[in-house]
Amino acid sequence: MSNVQSLERALTLLNIMSDYPDGIQISRLAEKAGLSKSTIHRLLGTLLNMKYVTQDPKTEKYRLGYQVLYLSRNITANNGLISAARPFLEALCEDINETIHLCVEDNAEVVYIDKIESSQTIRMYSRIGSRNPMYCTGVGKILLSGMDEDEFKQATASIDFVKRTAKTIDSLEELKKEIDLVKQQNYALDNIENEEGIRCIAAPIRDFSGRIVASFSVSGPVHRITMERIHDELIRKMRETSKNISRQLGCQI
Amino acid sequence: MSNVQSLERALTLLNIMSDYPDGIQISRLAEKAGLSKSTIHRLLGTLLNMKYVTQDPKTEKYRLGYQVLYLSRNITANNGLISAARPFLEALCEDINETIHLCVEDNAEVVYIDKIESSQTIRMYSRIGSRNPMYCTGVGKILLSGMDEDEFKQATASIDFVKRTAKTIDSLEELKKEIDLVKQQNYALDNIENEEGIRCIAAPIRDFSGRIVASFSVSGPVHRITMERIHDELIRKMRETSKNISRQLGCQI
DNA sequence: AAACAATGTTCCACGATACGGAACAAAATA
DNA sequence: TATTTTGTTCCGTATCGTGGAACATTGTTT
Predict the structure, then answer these.
(1) pLDDT for residue A22
(2) Between 20 and 30 A from B82 (CA), which of A190, B27, B128, B190?
(3) With contacts defined as CB-CB under 8 Å, which chain A residues touch B66?
(4) For residue A19, what are the CA distances in angstroms to A25, A95, A119, B67?
(5) Residue at minimum CA to C1' distance from nucleotide D7
């Protein structure tokens, strides 16, 4: 049940390195990872040979290698989705000028698989590939609302409800109620439930069979994403975009 | 000097999995990798825990996980090359208003590491991190032209020449001739050799030692990228930009 | 339905292999 | 020049990864 030690360590090194796009030296890596230099050195040797890491020819620091890009090129299970959705999300972004995220579910979490940035100076911090719980995000609620009973049970079985803000949902009963609401209105809010000062509205993306396969969201600071704006403008535009992308995927609704 | 066994094996599994975007089961992996099922199972366990791999909830097949996306996000972000080249490429794009790509070689393929989009409505489809063969692209020819004999041999040893269009180069002899030409003129064309209706011109980027470390290209539909325009305008402007970026990297030429 | 095949998972004893301290080399800093 | 920091190599040890075997589960064939 425990991890393969050397592998876990090496992957941790990759994770760390991804935070240092300009490279990082062995000693720092040793500190960060809490490992001896010789261990790091050995693991880096293999990572270098396998092209998962490169050594900057000038600074001699270690950086992630292009093999990682090579891998990511074929996470195409959702690549079709991403390229289908992008033009619509870009149009929406241009229209409302707020950050937009595209998400899918993975292991009962929300994963951000694409992102369109607004030109606003105050931007969301987020990162493609990063994760969030489902119970406190609009995109998560949407994905939950598309699940059948079994899937829902599994996805919510081991939730550790943490009150991230005053408004965070913190019980299963409450969550179930909320999801019922989401099913009715066909959009979901994260009304300052995940991060202080951030409000967010999300809508579903359905495939040919009508199943919800992804969700997208508009998020931003509460003073820009007001409840008025949501009702006057955003709900309508989200529905529009939701319908357009879903149609692109063959959804007949 | 030898690799950490378990790590090398696990990375090989990732490489294999990247060829199966819809997932692959343990037994197939065992075949492909020449390892026992139990070993694969154990390694996959750690890869799953670290989110480098996911298991498709329906088919139970294993696919690359989103952690790989997370990693790849920042590879391109601050590559010194990219940030050095970007302002020049942006200026060039603004000037000629066509899509521009920045590429490096990796594993005998061209990898697109940056892209500047024109405001034209008819755009190239491409994606950062995607790959193309070297023999049928302008950027590839440039990178080949910068290789010494050994490197060239290795990069061209296992080319599978596919006639993507009527004009695609489809033999090693022809390719060698073409590369000799490229060396002389210091730019390369993809004259509708990769994709129907698309023409492209590429130029090298050299580092402090004069070595070609990257290439960039202007591509677009043949009716905009005409041979006249190439000779009257583009060759000159590409040379200019090539020189400027290379100087930025310390190249003295 | 029964027999069979293929696949995924768990267990375990063995020994190969990954481990980290130490010692060394090289470079940066004082 | 002395001193600290960083990268690399070496090696004895015990830990950790290994693959076979046995079991469980599912799908296929007769």
Answers:
(1) 80
(2) B190
(3) 75, 106, 111, 113, 129, 131
(4) 13, 32, 24, 13
(5) A26
List, in order, residues 6 or more apart from A112 with CB less than 8 Å away.
A101, A102, A103, A126, A127, A128, A129, A130, A131, A132
Residues 102-131 of chain A in contact with strand D via CB under 7 angstroms: none
CATH number reported for the structural domain that contains residue A232 in this entry: 3.30.450.40
Nearest to B33 by CA among B47, B17, B49: B17
Confidence at residue A63, expressed as pLDDT on a 0 to 100 scale: 87
- Strand D contact at CB of residue A4, distance < 7 A: yes
Residues B118 and B93: beta-carbon distance below 8 Å: yes
Taking an 8 Å cut-off on Cβ atoms, the answer to whether B46 and A113 are in contact is: no
Among the partner-chain residues A4, A68, A77, the one whose CB lies closest to the CB of B75 is: A68
B104 contacts in A (CB within 8 Å)?
66
Q: Is the CB of B42 under 7 A from strand D?
A: yes
Q: Is A68 found in the same domain as A84? A: no
- Which parts of chain A register pLDDT below 50? 123
User: Does at least one atom of strand D sit less than 7 Å from the CB of B5?
Assistant: yes
For A132, the 3-state DSSP assignment is: strand
Of A51, A72, A93, the position where a domain reaches its end is A72
Tokens 């409450």 correspond to what residue? A174
Nearest CB partner across the interface for A77, out of B21, B47, B50: B21
Question: Is position A33 within any domain?
Answer: yes
The letter for the amino acid at A245 is I
The answer on B151 and B221 residing in a single domain is: yes
B56 and B174 in a single domain? The answer is no
Q: Give pLDDT tens digits along chain B (253 positions).
A: 578 888 999 999 999 898 888 888 888 888 888 888 888 988 999 998 898 998 877 778 898 988 888 887 767 544 668 878 988 998 999 999 999 999 998 778 898 888 888 765 544 555 566 789 999 999 999 999 999 888 898 889 889 999 999 999 999 999 999 999 999 999 999 999 999 999 999 999 998 778 899 999 999 999 999 999 999 999 999 999 999 999 988 887 6
Residues B123 and B212 in one domain: yes
Tokens of B37: 């099922």
Q: How far is the CA of A71 from the C1' of D11 (A)?
A: 37
Does nucleic acid strand D have an atom less than 7 angstroms from the CB of B35?
A: yes
The pLDDT assigned to B95 comes to 94
B67 and B79 in a single domain? The answer is no
Q: Residues of A with CB below 8 A from B46's CB?
A: 3-4, 7-8, 11
Last residue of a domain, which of A18, A37, A72?
A72
**B215: helix, coil or strand?**
strand
Nearest to A106 among B14, B54, B71 (CB): B54
In the DSSP assignment, the letter for residue B132 is E
Task: Tell me the residue range of the domain where B148 lies.
Answer: 74-248
